[in-house]
Design goal:
32% helix, single chain, 14 helices, Creatine Kinase, Chain A, domain 2, globular, alpha+beta, six-stranded mixed β-sheet, Ubiquitin-like (UB roll), 506 residues, ten-stranded mixed β-sheet
Length: 506
């Protein structure tokens, strides 16, 4: 990028970042510089009054600042100073490391003293938010003030995994399918959105209504909210492929057409944030917590559909003329299975998420794969000659950090391809009746599996893995202490601590 700002004025005129930070550190390729110039023009032409610059934290939660248009434009040259303290926060928004310890408490020198980091906007992610008044939105990449990339940044990690995959001759394609809840919160109750806006009179509980899976009438009962969500998503370039009502009251499932590369994870961030914002403007709360502890509420999952595109000819590398999955696809599956135990912290990062892995729950509980079987960990969807054949990883919870979840899948599948692994025979009947290795039954077990795993340490680096382990051990410790002091009533699986920790946060 040139030393002039995208605004065509002095880049230091607004006192943001470091003058020339992006150019000095070579952070924009020529096409990114061109995109920044175009976005600067659009911000002015649209007469925007605010631009939100957003960074996705270690939990997959967007954090950001709302800037004036000229300051946002200047940030594309100078970067934006942003508190690095967010990386010291757990899911309860409390500092989980010793305050002001050397290396930030997790051994990274640049983090000593809660310093600022520098956000650099990615102009390719620019959107105008239709639900907010004259407001733009951009995702950012993260750097230290010396220009070095942040080793804790999931977006940067996924970009590295995509580069390795590209070096092997493939591009990544993901289909997003996420379940979540929409509820109404009033002073006394949390009310499923499809129960209407007026609580029934006592003594009838608002939660006593049964579920109706894929009911058109039940779906129509929340149509005004879903239509607002649909239109908002379409306006930011994410039209839902399908919207469905799921098992629980107020439980929804949205799916999207396949999206390539880093944009797939970016889409999940924008989707979750958009849904929550649109709902809260209607007096509702959307939660991506896996299993809210409310009557008749069922766990929600995030099913990640995946395939690879050959860079040689643009074809689906998982498709096969005479089988339901190609040799490359089978190797990818073998890699997923081989690394699935250590993948738990990336795919299911909360205490609450492990309460989903139960027999006969339509969620996996052990390491196996199958053709068109919803009880398996990895489900293959396809047929001989089907150009859309792909695999579905069913381990994720809706609250997972999309960059870490997808990066973990890419790394595992690529390892299976590099080693030409062959998966075990697929399950042909009941996956819950097999003797395959069980998935971790708790976050504590998943932490142990990752801690002893050399593969992800090599693929992701010790710094990131040790950081996540430290944070998640603290989370488990707080959970165990809270449950010891205030155990759930007999027959109740979800603790008050989980609701306080995750329900609004995610």
């Amino acid at each position: 990028m040139t030393t002039s700002s995208p605004a065509g004025s002095r880049p230091d005129a607004h006192g943001v970042g470091q003058p020339g930070f992006v150019a000095r550190n070579g952070l924009y390729a020529p096409e990114q510089s061109a995109a920044a110039q175009e976005v600067a023009s659009r911000i002015r032409e649209l007469d925007l009054r605010t631009v939100r610059l957003v960074v996705v934290d270690q939990h997959g939660v967007p954090r950001g600042k709302a800037l004036s248009p000229e300051v946002a434009i200047a940030a594309m040259s100078n970067g934006l100073d942003f508190s690095g303290a967010i990386y010291s926060l757990d899911t309860g928004n409390q500092v989980f490391v010793p305050a002001f310890a050397a290396g930030g408490g997790f051994g990274i020198d640049e983090f000593t003293g809660f310093p600022d980091i520098v956000l650099v906007p990615d102009a390719s992610t620019f959107r105008v938010l239709p639900w907010a008044d004259r407001t733009g939105w951009m995702l950012c990449d993260t750097y230290f003030s010396n220009g070095h990339p942040l080793p804790l940044d999931g977006r940067g990690l996924m970009r590295r995994m995509l580069t390795e995959l590209g070096d092997a001759g493939f591009d990544y394609l993901a289909g997003i399918e996420v379940e979540y809840y929409i509820v109404k919160v009033d002073s006394e109750h949390i009310i499923p959105a499809d129960a209407g806006f007026t609580p029934p009179p006592p003594p009838v509980s608002v939660f006593e209504r049964g579920y109706q899976y894929l009911s058109e009438v039940r779906l129509d009962s929340v149509a005004t909210t879903l239509e607002a969500v649909r239109d908002g998503l379409a306006a930011v370039g994410l039209p839902p492929r399908s919207m469905e009502d799921e098992w629980g009251p107020g439980q929804m499932e949205f799916s999207f057409s396949p999206i390539g590369g880093l944009a797939a994870a970016d889409a999940v961030v924008l989707f979750r944030s958009a849904v929550k914002q649109i709902c809260q403007r209607r007096g509702l709360l959307a939660t991506f917590m896996c299993h809210p502890g409310l009557p008749n509420f069922f766990p929600s999952g995030w099913h990640l559909h995946e395939s690879l595109i050959s860079r040689q000819d643009g074809s689906n590398a998982f498709a096969c003329a005479d089988d339901y999955l190609s040799a490359t696809g089978r190797q990818f599956v073998a890699g997923l299975l081989d690394h699935s135990l250590a993948m738990g912290v990336f795919a299911t990062p909360t205490v609450n998420g492990y309460k989903r892995f139960r027999p006969y729950s339509f969620a996996p509980d052990r390491v196996c794969w199958a053709l068109e079987n919803r009880g398996a960990l990895v489900r293959v969807q396809g047929a001989p000659g089907d150009a859309n054949s792909h695999v579905e990883m069913r381990m994720g919870e809706p609250a997972a950090n999309p960059y870490l979840y997808m990066a973990a899948n890419i790394a595992a599948g690529l390892d299976g391809m590099r080693r030409a692994l062959d998966p075990p025979p697929p399950v042909e009947a009941d996956p819950y009746a097999t003797e395959n290795v069980p998935l971790p039954a708790s976050l504590a077990e998943a932490i142990g599996a990752l801690d002893g795993d050399e593969f992800y340490r090599k693929a992701f680096g010790d710094t990131l893995v040790d950081y996540l382990l430290q944070m998640k051990r603290s989370e488990v410790g707080r959970y165990e202490a809270a449950v010891a002091e205030n155990p759930p009533p007999e027959g109740q699986n979800i603790s008050d601590w989980e609701m306080q920790e995750y329900f609004e946060f995610f």
